Every structure is written in structure tokens, then in C-alpha cells.
Amino acid sequence: MTPPGTTSTGASHRISIWLFWRCFTLRHLRRDWFQTVLLLVILGLGVGTFLSIRMANRAAVDGFRLFTDSLRGTSDWIVESPGGSIPLAELPAIREAINGLPVDLYPVLETSMYPLQAKEMDSVSTPSAIKLLGLDLVQLRNIATSDDESSPEAFWEMLENPHHLLISPAIAEAMNIREGSLIEVAVSGTPTTFEVTGILPRFRDKVPLPRNLAIADLGAILNRTGRQSVDRVEVVVPPGAMRQDLIRLTGERLASVLDERYTLNTPTDKRMDGETMTTAFRLNLTVLSLVALLVGIFLIAQTLDATVSRRRREIATLRSLGISPAEIYRLWLSEAILYGILAGLLGLIAGYALTTYTVEAVTTTVQSLYRETSLTAAKILPSDVLLSFALGIGGSLLAAWLPAKDAASTPPAQFLRMGKRIPPFPVFEHPKIGAGMLILGALLALLPPWVSSPGVTVPAAGFATAFLWLTGGTLVAAALLKAVGYLFHLLGKDHAPARLAGSRLVQPTSRHQLALAGFFVAIGMASAMAFLINSFEHTVTGWLQQRLRADIFVSSTGFQGADSGPRMDGALLDEIETMPEVRELDRFRSQEATLNGVRFSLAGSRFDLLGKGQDLLWLDKPESIDLRPATADAIGFANENFVRRTGLSKGDSFSIPTPAGEKTILVAGIHADYARDNGLLLIDLPLFEDWYRVADYETAAIFLNPGTEITSFQQNLRLTHPGLSFRQNGELMEAALFIFHQTFAVTRALQVIGLTVALAGLVLSLLSLLMESGRELSLQRTLGMTRHEIALTTALEGGGIALAGLVSGLLLSLMLGLLLIFVINRQSFGWTLQATWPWKDSLLLAGSVFALGLGIAYGTGRLYMRKWKPDIL
Questions:
Q1: Using CA of residue 672, residue 678, residue 679, residue 683, what is the dihedral sign?
Q2: Which residues pair with 480 in a beta bridge?
Q3: How do strand 263-265 and strand 77-80 relate by DSSP bridges?
Q4: N or C: which terminal CB in the chain sees fewer CB atoms within 10 Å?
């Protein structure tokens, strides 16, 4: 009978809540606090890993946005040239195009300089290359801030100083310099000295300025560098009631008069371009970060399954008292929600703690592979908080589904007959379902990628295949436990611990299967990523050996491969080329271009040296390097990413605008290139120089005459050209591989996290199994088994789970590795890799994980036996 004014349903809910808090959860949480804390830490780590990668990806996008906004944020239109520079003589024509409109034009020179004392700088706090802007400081006087800002005489005195320079606070702090200090730098490879005449503010219109920014007057920079061009012209429309109409009219006027020598963009275009380029990279990291969360979900299921076993008498009693299966089901889900809420909170803390590492690693990779960006601190947004709790609660509910269903559907009498060993979940007894998922995944892998935007493809079917193989593989892997159990029986005929451990594995509980599932996923993903990284490194090393055949390689000091890095003045290379020791000198220069909305790099290199001093790694070799049909202005050699992004193939022709007019290029050959993933098309260097009127270069390769002592010649070059970097083959190979390992730093960290979570899951599984085996332990002690032998039995039981997880996980890693190499990687980045299985790493991983599994299992059993109290037989 229910109290007056209360429905029976309401009373039932209140009883359920009371049972949940008083009898069903709190008492057990207090008793098993260590397992509960360990579980929450593991699941929180999974949620935190995903959140940190999410925040790092957002920080990378924000870095593009902030870098663009801080340099171009006040602009409404940006006039640029496909050639990369606009001659000073052509600036009046741009002004004439908008004659009569009340708008302001700001020519900008943007280059990079490298402090020659950079070895003394903190490489973490300040990037090695400093972005140098040449601006009309008379127009932008409000940017300059110094102690004498209010004095007009001081301002004009600063401009009269041809060596003046304004630097960011971060540079001043990292180099320990202040106003009046001299700074020696290399600009375009030429050493020069600036005097610091002011410190820039940290913000411009509430937008943080890049930490590696320096500014000087445009005229002074032009005189110092000898340049006769600017990089762009920014158009600013003043505020007012007609501002939007004026912006539109200005754009229409510029678009109508600008020919193929110019492009018209907005700061938003630049931001979107940066975001689009990194889409595939950021998506792959996000998917990989879910592995730790997936393993955590298996652990939640494992823990809740253990509670079903430990509370079987309570469940039977509640069912006998009339508590319905639905109420029991809700009780379990309520406990899962509690776990999820706590895991979500821990995930927020762990995610924020991990972002310091992940943001720096992701930003470093973005700058190496794509273009310059700002190192932006990650921020926790309300959406991150909601996502953290959604992942924690959603993952817990998903994991609780099978244990809750088992607890609610089992009759009370059957619960009392079971004993403490809960039989396996029925789904794990159907490996044919898992085999079907494996086959379905293989069929999905044959589907083409999803095209999210021009030139950007997402391997959606490949990710679906990975998910099906991970989930279906757990069902197939469960069958291995019995095989390992029979193996222990066979090998340990006269060894009691081996036979006892084998008998438990021959009849595994659901706990064994869930622990195996966590191991299976973690080992499979970790080994698959090792497979991918090893294949990538092997392929890139072979490619570098093919490309790096010159004696000495030259770049501007501080150049690390980014398209926006500091370039070298061509006059310096002219001096080197005339030296008697030099046989040939090849220069490389790239320029961003667009074809049907797809951005790619058009570059120049000497074709007459191909097959002689150096060569490309051909995938589809041209019939003749000198062959040029009358219908084309040039032949081009495309890398495979260019072919994938544009849809062109060997023998196709296309036209692009250049400062020298529209030019037609025939794709004559396809080669492999792993330096960039935005597409690369090579044309002969003399044609590139003629089309784009370039006077600076990114890299150069020096071929010496026979008999020249390379090291001494290299030292001589370093003395005569201190603003340039000269490296031999081995040195450049070492630098390239360093950048390669930096690129995969986040991936390796995710591997370690996944394996750590799996080993922790083994501890949880064995602890719960030991706590459920009181009568068995008492019987074993009565029969004469020592504590060491009982701990050894636990070790072999845990080792059997680890062995089954290793065997099935390594098979999964082979499948996933091939999927990553030939489907996901190719559809995301367009790179063909040579599949190379990391035998040494795999054996080391297998041996170390198995040894850790045995050691952890033995230690768990030994520790438990110290605190164990015998049950009454």
C-alpha cells in the first residue's frame, strides 16, 4: 500500500533510488574503492585523450585564424600575385583601379628572418624563424608602442634610423633584449643587423599578434633587402553607413580590372584554406584518439559485469521481493550513469592537462607539413564540457547494456545456483557474427572516398571498415581463449597452476572475454600504427636516398621545409655557382597555384639534371624529358597527390594563369613525393623563372667537381655565407627524419595510452575474478597449494588472456595496417607507401606486453593473497 497522494509508480521509483544509493552502489563503492578509482581514471583518460586531440585540432585551426587575422585582420580585400610578389611599378595601376572610392591601400612586404644567435634562444617559447613585415608605419602609427609613443619627434627619429625594428614581447623575452639592443639576423640568407627601437603590443584590435612577429617600415626594408616588389596589397574600407556597399563595389572594381597577374581574396579565404588543408590530418588524429575510449568502454563493461557476480545474492533477493526486471535494469544503468558523470569530470581534467603536449605536437606537425601558423593555447569551451560528459555517460551506458540485461533477465533461482563464476555473454559465443562483420568491412574498403570539398577527400568507408574489424574481431578473438586453455592443459600436464589456469580459460567468464577485447583493440591499433609508421619511414628513407644525391644542400638559415619559410636571395646562389669547385647547382622554388578550386604547389627544378646528378622516384616515367608538344607551353611532372586531388592523369593538359599570361602544361609523368600533401607539379626551372619572375629560392643542391674535399668546402661556404645553411647528405637526412618523427609524436603517445589502458584492464579483470573465487581459493589452500602457486595460477590466467590478445591483436594489426597504408592513407594524403612490417618492433612489443601481463597478473595475485580472508567451505 502506498502513502496517500503517492502513486505506486512514484513509490516504486523512490524505492529504486533508495536501494541504489544505500544497498546497491555506495556500500560496494566503499568496499571496492581501489578498483572503482582505477576504472574511473582509465575511462577518464580515454575521454581526456579524445578531448585533448579535439582541443589541439581546434587550436591548430585557431592558429591559422589568429595568424591570418593578426596580420590581415583589418583588411577587406587582399590583392596578391600568383608569382608571389607585386612589382612596385605596378602599384599605381592598382590604385587607379579604385580611383574615386574612399578606401585605403596598404602595400605589405612579408618575409622571414632568422636570428644568427638563435642557438641561445628557447626553442619552445619562440619559433626559430621570425616573421618580418614591412608596413607603411606612417599610415599605421598606432601599431608602434614604446615609451616615447606620445612624442612625434621620437617616432620620426625612429623612421630615419635605417636599422630600426619593432619586435614582439615574446621575442624580446626569449632573446633577453630590450629597446636599443642590436640583433643580428639573416634575411633571405644575407646577414644584417637591426636595432630594436620598440616592443609591439600583445594584441591588435583584441586579436593576439603572432609571438614571432617583427615589423619595420616598408621603405626601410625595401632598401635593406634591395627588393623592388611587395608581397600583397591590402584594401581597407573605413567604417560608415555605406561600408558594406563600398566593400562590394571595391571588390567589383578590382575584379573587373585585375588580370591573370593578380588574385583577389579576403582574410576569410586564407583562414578557410588553412582549415581545409588540415582536414584529413585532424580527422585521422580524432579517430585514433577514440581507441583509448573504446578500450575504456570494455573496462566499464568488465567492471559492471563483475558487480553482477558479486551481488548475485542481492539481485536474487530483490527479485524475490517483487522488484521487477525493469527496475533492476534501471538500477544498473543508474550506476553506469554515475560512473559516466565522474569519468566525464576526470576526462575534462585529463584533457586539459594533456593539451599542453598535444597542442605543441599538432602545431609542429602542421607547420612542417602545411604552412606557418600560430601556437595557440587550447581552451575548454562549453561544447567540450558537454561532449566530455556525453562521452563518459554514453560510453558507460553502452558498456552497461550487456551486464544490465544479464542482471535483469536472469531468474532468481538461477542466480543462486550459478556460484560466483558468471558464464560468458551469448554474443561472444557466436564468432560467425564477427566473421560476417570482417567480410562486410573488407567490402566497404573497396568504396571510393567521400569528397568533402575540392581536393579534400575523407576515407569514410575506410573508417567504417576499421570499426567493423575492431568490433567483429573481438567476437572472433574470444574463441582463442579456449585454445590457449587447451594449450596450457597440454603443456602443463604435471603442473597444477598451469592445469588450473587452463581449466579457467577453457571455460571463460564474461570477464575474461571483456579483458581480452580490451587487449585485442589496444594491441591491434598500436601494432597497426607501428606498421604504418615503419612503412612510412622505410618509404621516405628510400625516397630521400633517391632525391638527395647532391654533395651539399643549401637553404636559408632557419628553413625547415614549410612553404612560408625564409628563402634565399638568388644573387647569393649566383656567387656560389661561379666557384671553381662547383660543377652544377640546381635551385628549387615553389609557388601556390589553383586549378578548378584545388590548391597545389607549382615548382621549378632543372630538368637537364634528371637522370644525371639526381632523379625523381617515378611511378609512371615520362617517355622523354625533352618532349614538349606544340599545344603546351611546358611539360610537368606531377606527384600522385596532385593527380588524386585534381583528377588529372598522365597525358592530360590544363591551363593556369601566371604573371606572364595563361600557360598550358602537359602532365608528362607521375612521381612520388612525400615532402607535402597539397599536390606538387614540377616544371623546368628556366620556364618557372620566366613565368613568375622569381629572384629568391627555397633550397638548392650543389654538385661538386671530382676530387673536391666536401667537408672543407662546406666549412668555407659557412664562413663566407653565414646567413645560409649548408648540409651534406647525412646531415640533411638526419634533419628530415627528425621532422618525420616529430610528425608522428602524437601518434606514438596515443599508442602508449592505449596499451596502458589495456594493461590496467587486465588488473581490474584479475582482481574481480580473485574476489569472486573465495571458495576456490580456500579449496586450493586446503589441497596444499602455496600462496606462490596460487599467485602463479593467476599469472598464467592473466598471461593466457595477454597471449590470446597478442595473437589476435597482431592479426588485426596486419589487417588494419594494410587498411591504413593502402586505403585511409592513400585516400587522405595521396601517398603510395611500401608496406614494411616492423618485425623487430612487433617482437619487442609482443614480448614486453606478454612479460608485463605475466608480471602484473602475478603481482595482482600475490597482493590479493596477502589480504585474502578464507571463506568457510
A1: negative
A2: none
A3: antiparallel
A4: N
Question: What is the number of alpha carbons within 13 Å of residue 549 lying toward its C-beta?
Answer: 15
Query: Which pTM was predicted?
Result: 0.70
532-549, pLDDT tens digit by residue? 888 888 888 888 877 788
Residue 450: all three cell numbers together: 567521400
Cell of 670: 607521375
Beta strands in 712-754 (DSSP E): 724-728
Q: What is the DSSP string of 621-683?
A: --S-SS---TT-SEEEEEEHHHHHHH---TT-EEEEEETTEEEEEEEEEEEE--S-SS-EEEE
* Residue among 488, 475, 698, 675 nearest 590 (CA): 698
pLDDT tens for 685-712 read: 999 999 888 888 888 999 999 989 999 9
For the chain, how many helices (H) and strands (E)?
29, 27
Whether the CB-CB separation of 141 and 150 falls below 8 Å is answered with no
SS3 239: coil
The alpha carbon of 248 is separated from its chain's Cα centroid by a whole number of angstroms, namely 39
The position carrying cell 551486464 is 403
Do the Cβ atoms of 84 and 692 come closer than 8 Å? yes
Contact 192, 185 (CB under 8 A): yes
pLDDT in tens, 200-259: 777 665 556 677 788 888 888 888 877 888 888 888 887 777 788 888 888 888 877 776
Q: What is the mean pLDDT of each run of 10 residues along the chain (873 residues)?
A: 45 52 56 68 71 64 49 68 76 79 82 68 48 77 46 70 85 84 84 86 66 83 82 80 82 76 68 51 58 62 63 68 74 77 80 67 56 56 76 75 67 52 65 90 90 74 87 85 84 79 80 77 80 83 81 79 68 92 91 83 89 81 73 90 88 87 90 81 92 86 91 90 85 73 65 67 64 63 74 80 86 88 81 84 80 76 65 45
Rounded alpha-carbon distances, angstroms, from residue 183 to 147, 201, 504, 742, 752: 20, 19, 72, 30, 43
- Say if CB 728 and CB 714 are below 8 A apart: yes
Are 245 and 111 a contacting pair, CB within 8 Å?
Answer: no
CB atoms within 10 A of CB 696: 22
